[in-house]
Design brief:
The complex is a heterodimer of chains A (113) and B (118).
Chain A (H helix, E strand, L loop, with lengths): L8 E5 L4 E6 L7 E8 L6 E6 L2 E4 L4 E4 L5 E6 L8 E9 L14 E6 L1
Parallel strand pairs in A: 1-9
Antiparallel strand pairs in A: 2-7, 3-4, 3-8, 5-6, 6-7, 8-9
Chain B lengths: L3 E4 L2 E4 L5 E7 L6 E7 L6 E7 L5 E2 L8 E7 L2 E6 L8 E10 L5 E5 L3 E5 L1
Parallel strand pairs in B: 2-11
Antiparallel strand pairs in B: 1-3, 3-8, 4-5, 4-9, 5-6, 7-8, 9-10, 9-11
Classes of the chains: A mainly beta (113), B mainly beta (118).
Chain lengths: 113, 118
């Protein structure tokens, strides 16, 4: 059973900022939050991972409130090529033996011109 | 990010034959790899956990005798679909994890293998 809840779909236009929120009410102390992007017929591509507060990389930002029960992936100035399915996952990423990530339904982002 | 490579990217096989899919971690060692299956318009479903040097752990409902997993080295896991049938046609994806500085693990996925059984 997936540990996360996301909107099924979102629409945006090129150049806009897109924020996708994920709910993970039962997140455990050792769980990290990871976001992946998937294009059709490709494997998921790592976007960003965080534990608390804010994480930023060259692609996106991840905002995590203090209670960690939700998180928001922020994509600045999206383009048509950002049309994809975005998955939010939580898992114990401090477990050196490896943690199986359980996927929910994801959010299908459609970017139009 | 770290690279996980799958081979082949796609394969078509006849019903009743077996197909082997390879998953390699190219620039890191992975004691654990994971195999997923994805049907059209659906999310990834975890099939099994592949452990180097030991037996794989299968998720409920996944037939271990049909989906043979071998993790012979720290960089290679294989999934063999035995006696394939059309209903086994799917997109198979593997995942491997690597440890960054700070002992946090990041999971990376292969590009997937499209299996079509005719």
């Amino acid at each position: 059973l997936a540990k996360t809840t996301q909107p099924i779909s979102m629409d945006s236009y090129e150049g806009q900022e897109v924020n996708i929120t994920c709910s993970h009410n039962n997140i455990a102390t050792n769980d990290y939050i990871t976001w992946y992007q998937q294009f059709p017929s490709q494997g998921p591509r790592f976007i960003i991972q965080g534990y608390k507060t804010k994480v930023t990389n060259e692609v996106a930002s991840l905002f995590i409130p203090a209670d960690r029960k939700s998180s928001t992936l922020s994509l600045p100035r999206v383009s048509l090529s950002d049309t994809a399915v975005y998955y939010c996952l939580v898992g114990d990423m401090a477990n050196q033996a490896g943690t199986a990530l359980i996927f929910g339904k994801g959010t299908t982002l459609s970017v139009s011109s | 990010g770290a690279v996980v490579s799958q081979h082949p990217s796609w394969v078509i096989c006849k019903s009743g034959t077996s197909v082997k899919i390879e998953c390699r971690s190219l620039d890191f060692q992975a004691t654990t790899m994971f195999w997923y299956r994805q049907f059209p318009k659906q999310s990834l479903m975890l099939m099994a956990t592949s452990n180097e040097g030991s037996k794989a752990t299968y998720e409920q409902g996944v037939e271990k005798d049909k989906f043979l997993i071998n993790h012979a080295s720290l960089t290679l896991s294989t999934l063999t679909v035995t006696s394939a049938h059309p209903e086994d046609s799917s997109f198979y994806i593997c995942s491997a994890s690597t440890v960054s500085t700070g002992s946090v693990i990041f999971a990376f996925f292969g590009q997937g293998t499209r299996l079509t059984v005719v």
